Amino acid sequence: MNLAPPALDQLDMNGKRVLVRVDFNVPIDDDGTIRDDTRIRRAVPTIQKILEAGGRPILMSHLGRPKGEVVETMRLAPVATRLGELLGTEVLALSESTGEAVASAIQGAKAGSVVLLENVRFHAGETKGDPELSRAFASLGDVFVNDAFGSSHRDHCSVSGVARLLPSAAGLLLQAELEAFQRVLLDPKRPLVAILGGAKVADKLTVIDNLLDKVDKLIVGGGMAYTFLKAMGHSVGTSLVQDDQVDLVKQAMSKAKDKGVELLLPVDHECGAEFSKDTERVTTDGADIPDGLMGLDVGPKSRALFVEAAHSAATLVWNGPMGVFEWPAFQAGTEEVGRSVASCGGYTVVGGGDSVAAIGQFSLSAEIDHVSTGGGASLELLEGRDLPGVSALTESK
Length: 397
Ligand code: AMP
What we know:
Blueprint: E1 17-21, H1 38-52, E2 56-60, H2 77-87, E3 91-93, H3 100-108, E4 114-116, H4 131-138, E5 143-146, H5 157-161, E6 168-170, H6 172-185, E7 192-196, H7 205-212, E8 217-220, H8 225-231, H9 246-259, E9 262-264, E10 269-272, E11 282-283, E12 294-298, H10 300-311, E13 315-319, H11 332-343, E14 347-350, H12 353-361, E15 370-371, H13 375-382, H14 388-395
Helix pairs in contact: 1-2, 7-9, 8-9, 10-11
């Protein structure tokens, strides 16, 4: 796996136009209010480092899914205002991302200022990796920095296309993300424990298959656990089960056995009669779920089992909630597992989407060694796949 692209300090940036792909895909209300500026904050160290090295940062990002058209509510101007406040320097927001006017605005920008190009996905070619668009972006910079971990699994013009055309390096955020996954996937301190959850097992089977080659213990919770339990012959009531995945799950279970991986599944459940926030919670005694009930969280014995396994880890990676944690009655599994990750003495990484939302909900982020900014990208790393946006940095001039 390619997890060590050229680093930022290897790039000569003095006096140069430094094109930087950042991930400013933040939630913005219609009145321009940014609801969560985490992604903007996480890009600040790289921008500051470029300024310190005498470079002229020219930032590019996508925002939302404008599908190749100009969508007024998806302009990046509100981000420029927030970024300016965080940096304490002027951020010039341009209303386009390619062309003569953009090139001359960059030329005319004051030394020490930062330029933010318009939403790159206003161009239809961006998500198709159109070579002409990649060249148009590349013509605006002398060197390129990718700091958008959350977009690095995309083979898009502003991510990998430009990287192949200019001398390139990873920004500080991207580098920190890759180092964290390197510590988990390439040379982990043992025991290595992975906790996987989330709704559907089909989305995570490649991750399971790859992790079975690496981990000492694998904990499976959430909706995906019921397909495992069904494959083992347990009754699962009306729980979320993917019948077409049962054979693949059986193969994964036999791989775990062959590899000597301890596979931990729920041994009891918190159930409800309906998929509803207000459904009455029923705790099962064992792993079987009676007819008419669906598993919506792992039960108390499972939580104790999972917490103990998490605490045994020297390296721990967690992806996916243990239950429908959005509903208070079914959040205990995710909360207790989250707390066990936070209090684990080993090196801890939380990757992606819902588990990151969960640790935010339970205010645990500060106690975790690495909280990933990229859901899709972190899943692809856990699947053992190279990210196009990272490989392209190594392939660059
Ligand atoms: P994913 O996007 O696959 O990581 O799944 C995350 C979603 O899985 C969350 O919104 C959870 O509410 C949901 N989830 C977790 N456990 C269950 C369950 N037992 N039944 C249904 N949905 C679940």
